Amino acid sequence: MTLLPLRLGINIDHVATLRNARGGAVPDPLRAARLAIEAGADSITAHLREDRRHIRDEDMRRLKRDITKPLNFEMAATDEMVAIALDTRPHASCLVPEKRSERTTEGGLDVLLGHDHLKLVTAELSRAGVIVALFIEPSLEALEASRSIGVPAIELHTGTWCDALDHGETERAEAEFIRLKAAAARCAELGIECHAGHGLDYETAAKISALPQVVELNIGHFLVGEAIFVGLEAAIRKMRAAMDAGRANAKS
Ligand code: PXP
């Protein structure tokens, strides 16, 4: 059996974070998105948060208008964001939980509690031709609920795994990777496309690329950080190479 292609989505939120630190126009997230595409990104991800702490409404409009690869609109499933997404018409929307106090998206969606609402939002966006993914914890219950919601794709939250590795907590990391592996395998059985992201670096991206059911990684913070030292283009090319090397270890 041939291996599924693996896409790289580049999240440019933190280019906007840096821009907003000075309140001016630079660095421009659209310029970063164009460079990312030149360097091999398959799509661009941007998260329009309720508090607009990084990406702003105008950024979304410019990205949709000017980039040559698919736009993945990361958003909370609120009426405000659904209205903006319906107006923007991105290629895809990844629905995420959002808390004002958090520094980044700290956990997956509560797909059991939010089931009915997420089902309505998924139906509304899907009718408009937007491919919806739910950002979830790697749990089998969350996957069953995602199937019942009717999404074509989910994104597995890799943050807990990456965090455990960062803190040298080997056992916790191994247990979390087993959950990721089982969840990715279950996706294939359920006919749901499997994406993954949050906290990935070269090493963890290579390792998750070896899971044959994973077809898309979304990566931001680490690459924007690396860009300070080696440039965004070089960092993305190195990431692509790490993913390809990891994928070569996948057993289809
Ligand atoms: N995927 C989702 C759903 C996210 O919320 C984020 C963070 O915005 C990412 C991927 C990218 O995570 P990171 O910036 O840690 O690479």
Folded structure, characterized:
This protein has 11 helices and 8 strands. The chain is an alpha/beta fold and 252 residues long. It has a single domain (7-247), classed as TIM Barrel (Alpha-Beta Barrel), CATH 3.20.20.70. It is globular, with a radius of gyration of 17 Å. The termini are close together. The structure holds pyridoxine-5'-phosphate. Pyridoxine-5'-phosphate (PXP) is lined by residues 11, 13, 47, 74, 94, 96, 104-105, 135, 155, 197-200, 218-222.
Question: What secondary-structure arrangement, pairings included, does this model have?
Answer:
Elements: E1 7-11, H1 13-22, H2 29-38, E2 43-47, H3 57-66, E3 71-75, H4 79-88, E4 92-95, H5 115-127, E5 131-136, H6 140-149, E6 153-157, H7 159-166, H8 170-190, E7 193-197, H9 202-209, E8 214-219, H10 221-230, H11 232-247
Parallel strand pairs: 1-2, 1-8, 2-3, 3-4, 4-5, 5-6, 6-7, 7-8
Give the tags.
eight-stranded parallel beta barrel, TIM Barrel, binds pyridoxine-5'-phosphate
Summarize the structure.
This protein is of the alpha/beta class and 252 residues long.
Looking at CATH, which topology would you report? Answer: TIM Barrel
Poorly predicted runs of 5 or more residues: none
Q: Would you identify the CATH H-level superfamily?
A: Aldolase class I
What structural class do the secondary elements suggest?
A: alpha/beta
Shape: globular
- Which hetero compounds are present in the coordinates? pyridoxine-5'-phosphate
Element order: H for helix, E for strand: EHHEHEHEHEHEHHEHEHH
CATH architecture: Alpha-Beta Barrel
Mean pLDDT: 96
Report the β-strand fraction as a percent range.
15-25%
Q: Biggest sheet: strands side by side, in what order?
A: 1-2-3-4-5-6-7-8
Largest sheet: 8 strands, parallel, barrel
CATH class: Alpha Beta
Radius of gyration: 17 Å
> Quick one: how many beta strands?
8
Helical amount: 40-55%
Q: Ends: how far apart?
A: 6 Å
Number of domains: 1
| Count of helical stretches | 11
